[in-house]
Amino acid sequence: IYLIKQMLESGEAGAPTRLHLDRCLSCRACETTCPSGVEYAQLLDIGRAVVETLAPRRPLLERMWRLVIAGCVSRPAYFRRAMGLARRVKPLLPASLRDKLAIAPQAGSWPLPRHARKWFVLGGCAQPTLAPGVNAAAARLLDRIGISLVEIRDDGCCGALRFHLDDADGARVDASALLAKWLPKIDSGEFEGVLVTASGCLAFMRDYAHLFVAGEAGIQQAQAVLPVLHDVSTLVARHWEEIAALLPVAGSKPTRLAFHAPCSLQHGLRIGERIETLLVRAGFVLTSVADAHLCCGSAGAYSLLQPAIALQLRDDKVRALEKGDPTGIASANVGCIAHLAGGADRPVRHWIEWLEERIAAASRGVA
Fold first, then answer.
1. Please, what is the Cα angle at 346 between 342 and 347, to 5 degrees?
2. pTM of the full structure
3. How many CB atoms are located within 10 Å of the residue 68 CB?
């Protein structure tokens, strides 16, 4: 904050100032700690935009790497092809990239939309390729209680990736394109709302008011979507009695899980405790995790831009998660899941996948 203040007052900034701003995780843990309620994330966004105009231009290779990340990951079709190529040449990749391929992209079955009640779900940019099983698991779980979940294939990036790579204009383009695909479905009345299974995306979308300038078409679109935009845990909690009836009977063998609440969930959306409560009520035993408020180092594109720091944070987090000897690790954001999986000795999955698997096992009579 003092660096940003000094930069704004002096009108000057060098590469060291930008380096410090780059190295901030944007985890927002300081916001949930600050007794004064300082909106640090907004200050950081301002600082990062200003420093790009004042500091010397980034080195060519750094600029190219940031353009590759923004241009590839934010486009689902491009990212699918890039990941397919990466898996074929995996042994040749640097460790920081090779670790991103640790989770197996198995989607599982997706039930047909057969119910009168329908919601649609954000597909997003990276998740359909890295972890397609997340939305499929949510669809199977909701199908059991009479709700059909529909995914708009290649609906695209929410804008978070480009925004955090200092491309606010590109972020607005991505967000506007996404909202334009959603609005006709919302206006049709066929769908009750929109679910998001990636907490990072939802946290960013909740701040769309800061992305679009008042009066822009985008802000009007966002205002139409935000009231019906929910984390998947909202719908699970709302229909918990129906879901609980599908779970194994009392006395069945519990599964020990370590839960990692992504920063976007606990410091952005501030609903981490809700998911932990749902998992406990579902019969999971949650192990104790030291320093659960700390970031795992994924932080959007941070693990690609600051790999040394990100890997140290990841290894510290994995040690804390695995100390209680859980069967597996649950989280709520695809970036965290992919990042943690590269260093964990046990499966790392979205919490909705663990819950749906438990319900599916109960339906088969498996304890």
1. 80
2. 0.93
3. 12
CA 314/CA 102 separation, integer angstroms: 14
- Among 261, 342, 265, 334, residue whose Cα is nearest residue 301: 334
| Two structure tokens written together for 270 | 């501030």
Residue with the two structure tokens 């990072």: 200
Distance of alpha carbon 121 from alpha carbon 292, whole angstroms = 28
Q: 237 exposed, middle or buried (CB, 10 Å; 0-12, 13-18, 19+)?
A: middle
Q: Closest by alpha carbon to 218, among 177, 252, 166? A: 177
Two tokens at 170? 């590109």
Q: What is the 3-state secondary structure (H, E, C) of 235-289?
A: HHHHCHHHHHCCCCCCCCCCCEEEECCCHHHHHHHCCHHHHHHHHHHCCCEECCC
- Directed axis angle between helix 15-23 and helix 40-54, to 10°? 150
CB 134 within 8 A of CB 142: no
User: Which residue is associated with the tokens 């693990």?
Assistant: 303
Spatial contact of 68 and 121, defined as CB atoms under 8 Å apart:
no
Instruction: Please report, as a single letter, which amino acid is at residue 278.
Output: L
Identify the three-state secondary structure at position 147: strand
Nearest of 353, 364, 305 to residue 330 by alpha carbon: 353
The kind and range of the H/E element at 194 are strand 194-196
Measured CA to CA in angstroms, residue 58 lies from 53, 64, 97, 350 at distances of 11, 10, 22, 36
Record the tokens describing residue 152, joined without a space.
């708009």
Successive 10-residue mean pLDDT values, the chain, 367 residues: 94 94 94 89 91 94 92 88 86 78 77 94 91 94 96 87 90 92 89 95 91 78 90 96 88 85 94 94 96 94 93 96 96 95 94 95 74
For residue 227, the 8-state DSSP code is G
Check if the beta carbon of residue 201 is closer than 8 Å to that of residue 241. no
Report which of 337, 74, 358 is spatially closest to residue 197, judged by C-alpha positions. Answer: 337
Helix axes 15-23, 2-10, angle to 10 degrees: 150
CA separation for the pair 355, 350 (Å, rounded): 9
Query: DSSP code of 58?
Result: P
CB-based burial label for 16 (10 Å; 0-12, 13-18, 19+)? exposed
